[in-house]
Amino acid sequence: MPQGCGHRPSGANLQPWHFTVITDPALKHRIRVAAETEEKEFYEERAPAEWLAALAPLGTDANKPFLETAPVLIAVFAQRHGLLPDGRKVKHYYVPESVGIAVGFLIAGLHGCGLATLTHTPSPMNFLNEICGRPAQEKPYLLLVVGYPAEDCKVPRAGGIKKRLSEFVDWR
After folding, report:
1. Which of 29, 93, 103, 128 makes an SS bond possible with 11, Cβ 3.0 to 4.6 Å?
2. Which residues of the chain have pLDDT under 50?
3. Under the phi-then-psi rule, with left for phi > 0, alpha for psi from -120 to 50, and beta for the rest, what region is 15?
4. Which domains does the chain have, with CATH numbers?
């Protein structure tokens, strides 16, 4: 984890996140099996046809071998509340926004080091609590796959649907 990660902006400066860095092959295997179970159900039963059509150009499916082949997985958990030293609960504010900002800084830092990342969000991800030993009050936010890109790596462009700058920014 980059030094100073706890200093990222967050609601009420409470850092409502926890990062679990996973390199153990056995844990990565357990995560892959659990994630593929959720993904299989998603693709076969829960995904709307429109969503599947949007995913089709990316070539993604329920198989997630990268969860084992990548050298590092980072499970990110959002904390709805924290505990004070005396054991009292303290409510965290702007949790999804704060965790998203922290993850964005982490991804930018990893990319700056020449590493590739992939955000993976099987739904639901509650299996991560058990595998990573995290308490039930923490909600899995995302699984970040980290490593050097494979030599034959291709970044999908989703059939050329990436927006041009002028489509999402305007200057006044």
Report:
1. 93
2. 1-2
3. left
4. 5-168 (3.40.109.10)
CA dihedral angle for residue 34, residue 43, residue 142, residue 124, rounded to 10 degrees: -60
What is the reported pLDDT for 1? 47
Q: Are 75 and 143 in contact (CB under 8 A)?
A: yes
Distance CA 152, CA 166 (A): 31
Instruction: Tell me how far apart the alpha carbons of residues 150 and 148 are, in angstroms, rounded to a whole number.
Output: 6
- Contact assessment for residue 137 and residue 50, using Cβ atoms and an 8 Å cutoff: no
The burial class, CB within 10 Å (0-12 / 13-18 / 19+), for 161 is exposed
Alpha helices in 42-164 (DSSP H): 49-55, 66-69, 95-112, 127-132
For the chain, the farthest-separated pair of C-alpha atoms sits apart, in whole angstroms, at 55
Helix, strand or coil for residue 133? coil
Return phi, psi of residue 37, to 5°. Answer: -60, -45
Q: Which CA distances in Å does 82 have to 9, 39, 96? A: 16, 31, 15
- CB contact set of 123 (below 8 Å; sequence gap of 6+): 38, 42
